[in-house]
Design brief:
The complex is a heterotrimer of chains A (244), B (295) and C (132). With 295 residues, chain B is of the alpha/beta class. Chain B has 11 helices and 14 strands. Chain B has 2 domains: 209 residues, Rossmann fold (3-Layer(aba) Sandwich); 55 residues. In chain B, 34% of the residues lie in helices and 30% in strands. In chain B, strand 1 and strand 2 form a beta hairpin. Chain C has a two-stranded antiparallel ribbon. Classes of the chains: A mainly alpha (244), B alpha/beta (295), C mainly alpha (132). The interface between B and C is medium-sized, with 34 and 29 residues.
Chain lengths: 244, 295, 132
Amino acid sequence: MKTWRDVARYHLVVPWAPLLIPWAILSGSFLVNLVIFALSPYGHHTVMTSHGPVSVQDATHGYTGGVATIYILFLIIGLSLVGRSLPFALSLGVSRRSYYAGSAALGAALAVADGLVLAGLQAIERATDGWGVRMFFFRVPYILAGPWYLTWLTSSVALALLFIYGMWFGIIHRRWNLFGVAAFVIAQLAVVLAVVLLVAGADAWSSVGSFFTGLTAAGLTGLLAVLAVLLLAGGHATIRRATV
Amino acid sequence: MSPVISVAGLTRRYHDNLALDQVSLEVEATSIVGLLGRNGAGKTTLLRILAGQEFPSSGEVLVHGAAPAENEAVLRRLVFVREDQTYPDFKVGHALRVASWFYPRWNAALADDLLADFGLPPGRAVKKLSRGMRSALGIVIGLAARAEVTMFDEPYAGLDAVARQIFYDRLLADYAEHPRTILLSTHLIDEASGLLERVVVIDRGRIVLTADADDLRGVATAVTGPVLAVDEFAAGRAVWDRRRIASRASVVVAGGLDEADRLRAASLHLDLTPLTLQQLVVQAAQPDDRERTSA
Amino acid sequence: MRDVAGLEEGTPLFAQIAERLAEEIADGGLAEGDRVPSMNELAAFYRINPATAAKGLNLLADDGLLEKRRGIGMFVASGARRRLLAQRRQRFAAHYIEPLVTEALRLGIDADDLVALVRESVPAAPQGGVQV
């Protein structure tokens, strides 16, 4: 049954939502940051000297973190996909399994494609020395700072993860409304708390700390991938009994 | 020929509410079955379970010989038109295009004709449609899908009488050329009564009546006239719903009346009015005998 | 559906369909050898289920008033009209005479007066009506 492929097509019938909106918003964020950087090109900080306070140019480039926008957008798109589009799909005889598979596949495809574009933009940014104003928009220290193919991989995995995470939220909301979403968030915090307590109990902070600092970008990407798979399974388990 | 829909002991419980209670039902292929009953009786729940949109609490549900839930082989041969369908940010044309992907028997020409019949512009956003237009869209999808099992759940919300007649006419016309199994849940019973071959009445989660529609015609008659004459005529017969005003009375007599009965009634100056299907359904849903008097 | 093409509530629809077709045949509207409307045509006209229409047609066919020609349709059988009129005559007494007599008795009209009334009402030379 190739229903899941039709589901992916279904989400693209109105293409500008999943395809263009992330880029439209990202472009907006980019332009705003660009303008700000153009007006005050280098970061400054104040230093006390024998002659009194002096403004000194920062040695490093300016990281804006604006690229986080697109990641958040992937979360939101994953979320809205379930809310808006699930009812009609179910009424057309699509199984929940196929719907989930098709939506996740679309999210993965978008993640890979957009990740490639992000890697490309990162390369251009590097080549133009921060777009001529020394702005780091598409590069993020350590995580998105390596060779283009690694950046591509990391971005894709991160985008896909957020998309899947958003889908799960959407499914929880569909089944149990805002109350369920709140419970979901609390449950996750509880899990985090449990882990923290476990680590503290085993007095293992230093080993945990060194594990994380010893992680390369590639290692982190692998970790994110594992997390994404777990979230995928969670969402799938939850959608199986969803009703509209 | 085995029935295309087969339900046995179906129960659906929500927290404290028993929406369906041990429902058993069989629907033959190529027939039009009316699913009748009051609001909240369980018609929608039953249809949703048949369409795989809800899950049974217990019992067996088979459509084309298999359970419909999450079963795409079955669901491709089934279309369910709901009363309150929500759509994504689509235009009318988008909704039809998508529907055509999932129904192997979809007929685009029929869909276009129906759009024109209902005056639905394909370029309009579904969100901007009036309630009646949305219902019309659901009907277009339901009919153009030409699915072997076609289910309508009160599909005419917001449709005026003219549009409803268009629906019945188009349904009949397409059914005549492409017979299929149609389940129509409605509370506008008399309007649709000519279409129905079989009638299933649900009340408070239970099936209270299953019969051929034609068998129900004339099965109960209202007898009105002078009190004594009415009592004389009704003596020895099953009777329900007695009413009285001054020296006239009206009772509903169960059981068919033959030629002799008619002549006798005429000679007693009694009026005989057969109960319509709608009135029968109302009666089936509240079987208590009630005495009504006015001064 | 009430009042559409005059179908009534009290009797099964298929029986009413059969009855109407029989009347058409008896009145000469459908001559022997004429094709009768198909089940789909009847269904569309009366706005009823085709199966119901088919049942009505089959009822007449079982009585020998219609004959099926496979692939073409149903046709009025020979002798159908004659048989229907004979049936009507048989029912005439029960349908018309008996109620007439009952009512007359109630009003105190005796047999002779009744016969005189009937004579007055019947036209001298037959006008319209059915020729057999």
